[in-house]
Design a protein that fits this description.
alpha/beta, Oxidized Rhodanese, domain 1, five-stranded parallel sheet, two-stranded antiparallel sheet, 5 helices, 7 strands, cytoplasm, Rhodanese-like_dom, EC 2.8.1.1, thiosulfate-thioredoxin sulfurtransferase activity, transferase
Amino acid sequence: MTEFKRITPEQAQSLRSEGGVIVDIRDPNSFANGHVTGSTHLDNQSLPDFIATADLDQPLIVVCYHGNSSQSAAAYLVGQGFSDVYSLDGGFERWQQAFPQETEQGDPS
């Protein structure tokens, strides 16, 4: 895969159930107020360690607020060697509408 793909929350949930990793690039406060269950908060500080320890061939789903900035982040991650990258259409807002039971609160770790 030379570029990322855009997917719906339903497709993301399917990938997630097959071992896909979800990363959330929103600000820490937004992440703490609600995020996809089990997702990892990714920012400029955590990015280098994430890249260094991640399985570059595992599906990676990037989540933002509404599905716009996740596209740039997904393209960047493809450039860093990730082979199977997706941007979540509609972002966390759409995920929360589709899967309210699959969201949680808590500070980024």
